[in-house]
Amino acid sequence: MKLLKSLTIAASIAASPLLAQTPGVTDTEIKIGGAHDLSGIFAPFSVPAVSAAKAYFDQVNANGGVHGRKITYIVEDHGYQVPKAAQAANKLINRDEVFAMLLNLGTPQNLAMFQMMEPQGVPNVSPITAARQMVEPFAPWKFAGTSSYYAAVKAAIAFMKENEGTRKVCLMILPTDFGKEIEAAVHELADAGDIELGAEIGHKPDESDFTGALGKVKDSGCDTVGMALGISQMINAITTARKLGMDDLKFMLSSAGFHTVVAKGLAAQGVTDGVYSAAGWQDLEARLGEPEVAEWVAQYKAATGEDYPGTGALLGRAGAGIMVAALEAAGPDLTRESFIRAMETLDYEDKIAGNHVDFSAEDHEAADEVFVNRIENGSWVLLQTIE
Asked: Residue span of the signal peptide, if any (predicted)?
């Protein structure tokens, strides 16, 4: 009789809502995780992205949350180091038991964290990297925010060939999964005979002297450099080129260089032209007069005390917006499966990012547009939109 009673109690507990509960979800809370570079070479993306996402979640929470649940965004710093990213993911997924991951920064960092996300099907939403691996190979839990580095670089180089005289391209890249994406796009164009390929130079994340590398670029006779470096490295390398008298050399940056800090930093060093980029979102500065943008900028300033949101904040707000929209669409009975189904129904204009968010069961890349830009007098100016 005691054994029968014990088995009955055990069966009752196993079937209880408590043990069947979705990780990171209670009646009053949804826990979301984020592994960021708050102290490394891409901190200008992560730091404001976190501020913007938290500010938006605070606003949502103040209005009652999503179906009565408040959003808690738990953030860990990996400093753009892969081992620390793995440690961060382990903490967030296995100790904090977050429902989903949002805005994780870095290509190699995300790939390392996938090893823990995949077995549990933890949704990875709008990572701050445009590597194709964020959605390829396809997996139900992978959701990218914008068009890929690969697509954007190919579009930018094609534009520069047609309009800016680009014929021979050298590469200055971090030899990581991030840099390899830019390398692959340029190689494909070269293999097709669209451009000529010059020197290919790998750099360390902490490298700061680019004189030798630029000498190799000059010796190769390149008119354009495809660049995949850290934020301060890009500014340093381009400024060095101009100091060396390489005034006609053009620079093509991936979306990792399409940042307000880059445009303003180069202008402060006297570099006001010859720098191009392509990304899956539009620069904020030129759209400050749009009502939705102006409203968000005012809210961001009030919430953070900062003067200007900038690119990282734009991506943070865009990603947080996708997360909230999907949580709302998933309804009160929230599971990872219902969230994924809801993500696949999203279709709206993101006025902050300036792109169109559109997922489906077959397409987990939110925005497909590519925006080609050039720095002019310290600001990014849109040259062409490719849909």
From this structure: 1-20
